[in-house]
Amino acid sequence: MANFSLKITQYLSPVNNSVITKETFSFLKELATNNNKEWFLDNKITFKKHEADVKSFYENVQERLNVHDEIEKMKMFRIYRDVRFSKDKTPYKTHFAGSFSRLGAHLRGGYYLRIKPGETFMATGFWEPNKEDLFRIRKELEMDASEFRNVINKKSFKDIWGELEGDGVKTAPKGFDKEHQNIDLIKKKQFIFVRNFKDKEVLSTSFIEEVDKSFKTIRPYFDLMSDILTTNLNGESLLD
User: pTM of the predicted model, to two decimals?
Assistant: First the structure.
């Protein structure tokens, strides 16, 4: 029994925490084809191995992030789907995903990375800001959006992250002028950036470096937004 337990432990140990393997992609593709409880239970040990490998990869990403940022926690999302309110009743996600939360009230924004054959992407920014934060951002953009535009339109930034994404209202939020020169930004409800990856990029040994470089490039945006969300319109700190 002891030898068997040792073998299982060794089997579940990550092979290389700096890469996403072809074997992990193959498993996710098989899961997509066999998304049912019976198959999953028969292959649960294999799943646990790949889960451990990917978690180790995410932990390595976190270590790199902490070189140039401060990460409070890393969260790996469970493979099990919540099907209570979904027409799709397949029980399992066919991807691995995790998020990285920045430390403290003074550091705003977060990082997200999803690993899925054919649909790997990373995202960052402000997905669902609460109403107070959203109003503060809009008031800043109403007053002056020049610094915001300078940050997100810088070539080195756009080469990696492209255009600002996120849902918005159709006309103008209540209390804001629909003819305002910055209404395109003020209408936003989300302030996010997304970068997609091809499978060959994800399976490359340089993928983790590309993830880290991309997250590092977002910092001027985070620094600006953190400053906005921790001060009033007079530039006075809200954290004192």
Answer: 0.90
